[in-house]
Amino acid sequence: MTRVWKWNRPVTVREVLEDLQQERSIAYTTVMTVLDNLHQKGWVRREEEGRAYRYEAVSTRAAYAAALMNDAWAQSDNPAAALVAFFGMMSDEQRRALRDAIRIVQGPETGGAEDEKPQSGNRSGNTRNPESDGENAQSDGNPGSAPERAGR
């Protein structure tokens, strides 16, 4: 999937193969099998072009990561404890990104004086534009299993 996301356009088995062969030796049939498996699982779509297929990711890398996190969280018998443990593993930068994401999901706040207070954990008043963070600000918003949420 990393190679398909990297190209950000429909790719052939040959293109992925040549890209991978810059780093290691790999067979055409191995790449073809992996792309076919990804297609069967719903992670890529394909269109016939001559005698070959062009494969394209059905979702962003961010949506894929979100689906994995949601699936892992859903497996927990104590979701709150799982979140606390997960947040405890985050770096300061990751926690800032989380706060930005929560602000995006919640939308603009209405009200007077509260809008002027810095958010807790952001006492400096510095803010980032989460929309400039590219994939980090994306969400597909689809419910369902991981492949479905990731754009199937």
Automatic annotation (TrEMBL):
InterPro entries: BlaI_family, WH-like_DNA-bd_sf, WH_DNA-bd_sf
Stretches with biased composition (Polar residues): 119-142
Molecular-function GO term, any one: DNA binding
Keywords: DNA-binding, Transcription, Transcription regulation
Region (Disordered): 102-152
Residue runs in coiled coils: none
One of the GO BP terms on file: negative regulation of DNA-templated transcription
Keyword DNA-binding attached: yes
Family: Belongs to the BlaI transcriptional regulatory family.
Name of the protein this chain belongs to: Transcriptional regulator
Species of provenance: Streptomyces echinoruber
